[in-house]
Design a protein that fits this description.
- This protein has 13 helices and 3 strands.
- It has 2 domains: 94 residues, Orthogonal Bundle (DNA polymerase, domain 1); 161 residues, Orthogonal Bundle (hpI Integrase, Chain A).
- By secondary structure, it is mainly alpha-helical.
- The longest helix is centred in the N-terminal third of the chain and has 20 residues.
- Helix content is 55%, strand content 3%.
- A 3-stranded antiparallel sheet has the order 1-2-3.
- Strand 1 and strand 2 form a beta hairpin.
Length: 287
């Protein structure tokens, strides 16, 4: 058993090393490491070279039926194991087929433009307001706004360079005139050195702090919707669509790899919905 424990540790180290070599994000590495370790705990002390597809299927069956994990958890576990099988020990993809759970499509929560305005009004600290406005005004993920550097703001071309977004892809997004003025006021007050939004020790600002700032603003603005930081990004895309921006352009601004991801906003945009008259209102007209 001692030998198998050593082999398991070595497998974990090889997997992390390969993830780092492929430049996966630290959050992805942490998730894959946790998922793969859980799978190995289930297998122990079975030798790794004797692991079969039945072992993998039985493990995920247990996760679903006994632990009742979410579809997202199950998918992440499958991805971690697939990565080890394909990228670390070099198995052919055709040698295994793992059944994936059917993905539930949930419509994103979106704020109205009036709600976004009310939200910003509640944030009196210029740094906090600039941060939230940057997320909304540029359609950024929380990791992307934290990684912004001062040089990424191009006031001449009115663009913001987003480095190392999802999938380690760089992209350009818009810089609004209102946001630029807010950022200038913030810069004069705080004088960040490298990162646009810095915490102690000139390190990137804390994601936890952003969430707390937003939660306080939502409460003060008396917004009843379940708002998280990503809601501002969803609202950015939806408001662009409602204002007539082409879906393909929104896809580029959001950094979506597939247009299908962007199309979700067509289901929450209200530009056309407002033109539809309810049959209940028609009944009132007849009466």
């Amino acid at each position: 058993m001692h030998t198998e424990a050593h082999a398991y540790r070595e497998a974990m180290e090889q997997m992390v090393l390969r993830l780092e070599m492929r430049r996966y994000s630290q959050s992805t590495i942490t998730i894959y490491r946790y998922m793969f370790r859980s799978f190995l705990s289930y297998l122990y002390p079975k030798p790794l070279h004797k692991v079969s597809m039945d072992d993998i299927h039985h493990y995920h069956h247990q996760l679903v039926t006994t632990k009742q994990v979410s579809r997202s958890y199950q998918n992440q576990s499958i991805n971690a194991i697939k990565f080890y099988l394909e990228q670390v020990i070099g198995l052919e993809r055709t040698t295994y087929e793992l059944e994936r759970p059917q993905k539930i499509r949930k419509l994103p929560v979106v704020l109205s433009q009036q709600e976004v305005s009310r939200l910003f009004e509640q944030v009196t600290n210029i740094k906090h307001r600039a941060l939230l406005m940057t997320i909304y005004g540029c359609g950024l993920r929380i990791s992307e706004v934290l990684a912004l550097q001062i040089g990424d703001i191009d006031s001449h071309r009115m663009e913001v360079r987003v480095r190392g977004g999802k999938g380690q892809k760089d992209r350009l997004t818009m810089l609004s005139a209102v946001l630029l003025e807010t950022l200038r006021s913030y810069y004069k007050a705080y004088r960040p050195k490298a990162y646009l939004f810095e915490g102690p020790g000139e390190m990137p600002y804390s994601a936890t702090s952003i969430r707390k700032v937003l939660a306080r603003a939502v409460k003060k603005a008396n917004i009843q919707k379940p708002v998280v930081v990503h809601t501002l990004r969803h609202s950015f895309a939806t408001h662009l669509l409602e204002n007539g921006t082409n879906l393909r352009y929104i896809q580029e601004l959001m950094g979506h790899g597939s247009p299908k991801t962007t199309e979700i906003y067509t289901h929450v945009a209200q530009s056309d919905l407002h033109k539809v008259v309810s049959p209940l209102d028609k009944l009132a007209e007849i009466g």
